[in-house]
Amino acid sequence: GSRTSGLSGNGTATEDKNEPLTPDQVDFEAKEWAKTHPEEARGLYTSTFIGAIIGLLGIVFLLTSEINTVLVVRDKDMFASSGAPMPVDVEERAELWDGGLKARWRPWLSLGGVALMVSGGLVMFYPFCSVLKDFGLPQAANTADCATSVVLMAIVGAIGWACLLASLCWVCTRPWASLLLCSISLGANLSTSIASPFLILFWAVSSGFLAYWYLAYIPEAHEGYRPPDWRTPLWRD
């Protein structure tokens, strides 16, 4: 970014220079700011710690939900491939985890986990808006613009990381779904790295199209799909 206003070494405002800030300069300014604003610095450390805890809790919720769902789906696949009747305990677990939004627990834990990840990001990064404004970063006219950017980045970033984690859970059970989730994750992380509103919009539209394509045309997304027996080795002697 370009420097529109900033802090000198003693924490006082400097004149507009429109010079690019290097990472070393940002680090130096942040340390100087922390020395001259100890109370605010402690507040930032506290909010960062709390936000990280909230985000980690969201990850735990998400992984708990997706791993349990994967295990249920694999059990159902095994019995469907063998033609054996479905045990009662598998049917009971399927009611809790399988069936998308119709499942009893999965929507709450998975979507709740993503919501906690978003909340954690907001708690971590929103307080930095006041500090970044002192440095002239980001190139926002006021704190409200910074807050809008933080909210948008927190949502897109959380969705990206959630899709990556879910992709890893499903890679051996529903590979097409895993590929879709991985693609959405890569697009989200690219969008947050470049921080372009147009790229974020393109990512959102593309992700919706890919999700529709998967649900409409990929066999593994359909009810009654019978996958290859995952117990069968890829080669035989």
From TrEMBL:
Residues 1-24 are annotated as: Disordered. The chain crosses the membrane at residues 44-64, 108-128, 148-173, 194-215. The keyword Lipid metabolism does not apply. Residues 1-13 have a biased composition (Polar residues). Keywords: Membrane, Transmembrane, Transmembrane helix. The keyword Transmembrane applies. This is Uncharacterized protein. It comes from Hemiselmis andersenii.
